[in-house]
Structures are given as structure tokens and as C-alpha cells.
Write a structure and sequence with these properties.
The protein has 591 residues and is α/β, with parallel strands linked by helices. It contains 25 helices and ten strands. The termini are far apart. Bound molecules: uridine-5'-diphosphate (UDP). Uridine-5'-diphosphate binds next to helix 22.
Amino acid sequence: MQTVTPLLIGLATGATFAWLSAMIRCRARGGGPGRAGDWSGFSLLVIVGVLCLWPRAGRAPWGLLPALVAVLAIGAVADRWPVRWYVRGAGLAACAWWLWASGVEITHLKVPFVASLAALGPMPSALITILWVTLCGLAFSISGLVRGATFVVGGLAAATLAVVCLLQPEITGPGALLLAVGIAGTALGHAAVDHRAAPASPGRAGGMALGFLLGAVSIIGALKNTAFLVAVLPMLVIGVPLLDASYAWRLRAGEGAVLGITTRRRRLHEALLEEGYSDRQVFGLYLFGAAFLGALGVGLVILVEVSFLLKLLLLVVALPIGALLGYCAARLLPRRQEQPEGADKVEMFEIPISRVTMEQALDEIERFIDQQTPHHVITSDASALVRAQDDLELRQIMTEADLLTADGAGVVAAARLLGVPLGERVSGCDMVGLICERAARRGHSVYLLGAAPGVAEQAAERLRERCPGLQVVGCEHGYFAPEEEPRILQAIREAAPDVLFVAFGIPKQEKWIKQHMEELQVPVCIGVGGSFDVISGRVKRAPVWMQRAGLEWLYRTVKDPRRLPRLAALPRLARMTFAQLLRGHWVPPKA
Ligand code: UDP
């Protein structure tokens, strides 16, 4: 309780000041909070000012106060006039020098594997302190351009430092704890306001001040006496902005860059936005990164007494896992994509998949009907893609299909991971209803073949209710004996539908269609799996939120555990996807 109360007070103070100052700004402008970042600087000043008056805070805040004013001034100038990063860096370094001179300094470093701490002389101490604080300020100011991101990342970084202070109270000044929590509050308070604001630039001043203060807190706080805490933890805490800022320097051999020095500096968030991610998605990814690295930092502090090797091992294992998770999360997010123009195809595991949205798939089907020649449409889920790897007949059929859409969360996820630009998930079940709607409008007829006796009739009934005027020219169940087949083929030929829905499940329906489509001469034959069961109401479809979250397979398996063996397709698809990713190249879309 003793520690929680000041913690909460710090958090609440920071958030309130940030919110209030943003609101004042908002009123003054008669609109959004504008450069919310500028005003978070004001909150930071208030917090440091309050700390100066607090008897147990020591003299560090007195050194911080003027340095912070100077940092804010530099940030404000950089917001209004183009100031090169090294000029900003030089200004920040001067402020960091002042900080060092007023006693906020890194005095000791611990070298890994060596038990004792190495005392730094005045010169190295000044150099390391100034370098560190400047770096923090610059990194935050550079990455402050995604709305809200710096503030949330800063908030999490400060909160992590606060937790570290709590875990290591004996080597932490109480001022550091309050300051860290105050910064977290400021950052989070502003994130909330900034998020609601009309398009606004967060401004450099606040971000820079935030980074500068975080650098200072990491020194005042518990970070001086183990190698991990002094070197690794701060890196983790500001890892996301560092990554964002340093992205420009990664080796860009493809662009002819020498030793990674590029002609045009591009930060990570810019690259992500250009790739089609929204502001909100970049924000979410940064949040994930900061939370992961922060949690890792806290884990290391908890393990502070444990051997160095063990902590190193933790880092070596956790960082690649985090990077992989972040990478997968980024790949799985739906991106704003160029709408495909026609039904061009992209190859996935040697199966050409049509790049279409639902609307485009329906247009394509109407075009097939107009042509009055037989066409085969397949909606392929993960199990079909996996099966086609072993079943060469199915693969051939899928390759020759006139339209093959991606149906199922597994296929869409694999495509996103591989960067294959599919339009969207086009599910067979949705397609049946939508094809019937269009058919009713345009006077086309449909035939339902498949599922248990009585189901196709029931489904037809439901479809007629949904699409008044729909011509259902025949229904037949899917459990007929081989000797009955000629009769059924004859019935379909005589009914001459424009669309034949075949519901036998993959791959039976695909093979059946392929075998008979020429003699049937139906313009569109499409395999629709268990759709009749769903449309007739015998099987309930997953709730919309589960469909949206790509969890329909889970719902269907829970409802019908006999489907469990089919799930084996998902790990295999994941294996195939990662194997493809590791091979590091992708077959370009077919023209
Ligand atoms: N089915 C059929 N004849 C058969 C085997 C299956 O009519 O010989 C029907 C079965 O009743 C079900 C559908 O085909 O309605 C297959 O549905 P499932 O959900 O298994 O297919 P998926 O949508 O997963 O491809």
C-alpha cells in the first residue's frame, strides 16, 4: 500500500495534467488538440516542478527542471523550422551535460562475467551519460510521428522503469519512481486525447522531452549496478523507438546503399504506412513491441540475482520469439490493398488462386453464365490446399478451375504471412446465398445437388424465401448409389440450370464436377461443401464475430467433433508456410 499510493498519485497526476493541457490547447484552437506532444512537455514540467518541492526527492529534479525547459525549447524550434537531426542532437547533448553536471550521472558500469563494478572517471562518466540521454531524446523525437505511438510507447517504458524501481527499492531514489510514473501518466493521458483528435502531428517537443526524461530516470533509478540493468534494460525499454529510428540505417543493398547508409532516410513506421497499414495498426504493433520488451525487462530485473548466463539465455530465446511474433502479427494484419482489377491469379503452393473480392467473384460468375459454356468454380480452404499437395488429381483439377477463391481463415492467414496479395476471403457458404440473390434478379436458375436426403429441398425453401423469384429447377441428395447416377445426370441436363451447386465435400465434389461438367453443359458448377446443411438451418453457422476473427473452423469442430481430424490440415499449412518463408522467396504473381 505504501508504494502503491504514490504510484497511483504519480500516474493520475501525469494523466490529468496531460489531459488538461491538451484540452486547454483544444479550446484555444477551437478544434483538436493539435500538437499534443508540445503540451505533454508542459505536464512533464509540472511534474518535475512538483518533485523539486518534495523533500525526499533529492537534488536531481532541480537539475532536471532547467534541462527540460531547454529540451522543450529545442523541440519547439525543431517543430517550426527544419532543424537537422545532428543540430537537435547537439542541443540535447548540451542539456544532457547540464544534467550530468547537476549529479544525474552514470558512475559505474558492470562488465559481464566480472563480479565487481567498474568505477567510471569523470570524463567517461560524462560521455556515457550524455550519449545515453541524448540518444533517448533523439529516438523519441524521431519516432513521434505516428499519432499516439510515442506516447504509449513512452508510457509503457516509464511504467516498466517504475516497476523496476519497485522491484529494486534499496538502490532506487524514491524520486525516480514518482518521476517514472508521472511520465507514464503524461504519456498515457496524451495518447488518449491524441487518439481522439483530428489529424494532428504529435510534435517533437513533447516526444523529445519524454525521451530525455526517460533517459534521466533510467540513470537516477535502479539501473546502475548490473550490466543487464545498465545496458540491456534501457535498450529494451526504449527498444521500439530505437528500432523505428534506426530502421533507416539497416543494410539496403537492394537500393544500392553502401554499408546501410541510404540516400533517403525512412523510418520503420513510414515503411509500414507505405505498406498499407493504417495508423491504428502501426500504433497497435508498437504497443505490442513496447509491452513485450517492457515485460522482458521486468523479467530480467526479477531474475537479477540469477547467473548472467541464464539471463543471457532468456534474452537470446525471448528476443527472436518476440521478433517472430511481431513479424507474424504484422503480416497477419489486413492491409489496405490495391483492389485487384480482374480475376488474375496468384500461386500459393503451386495452386493458382484467383485474386478476387466477393463482388468480383460474383461478377465473374455472371460472366460465365453469359458465356453459356461450362465453368468450374472452387472455393478452397486449408484442407483443400494441403490435400492438393498429395492428391495430384485434385491439384490438376484446382489448377484448371476457372475461378478458385480462398475460403477459410487458414488460407488467408497463410497468404498474408507470405505476402501474397489475395483480395479477401470468399467463402462458399456466403457465395451460395449471394449467387442466388443475383440469379433471382437476373432470372437465372439454380440446381442443388448434395447433402443428406431432404436437406437440399429445405435449403432451396430457405433460399426462395430469401430471394423471391429464385428459380430452383431441381434438388437431389448426395447419397445416391452409382447405378442412380445416370438418372441424376439426365435430370440435371433436362433442368438445364445456369448454376449447379454440388455439396459432397472436398475433394469428392470437385472430382465429380470435373468428371461430368462437359456432359452436363451447365455454365457454372461450384462445389459448396456443407453449405446446404447451414442454409437449411440443420447446422448453425458460427457467430459473426467468430467468422470475422477467422475462428469458424473452431466453432464447427466444437459443434461436430468428427471434424477434428480435418484440423490436421492447419499445422501442415503452417509448416508449409514457414518453410516457404524460410526459403525466403516467393513465386511472383502470374500475369
Ligand atoms: N455429402 C454428400 N454425399 C457424400 C458425402 C458427403 O452429400 O457422399 C455431403 C454431406 O452430407 C455434407 C457435405 O457433403 O452436407 C459435406 O460437408 P462438409 O462440411 O464435410 O464439407 P466442407 O464444407 O468441409 O467441404
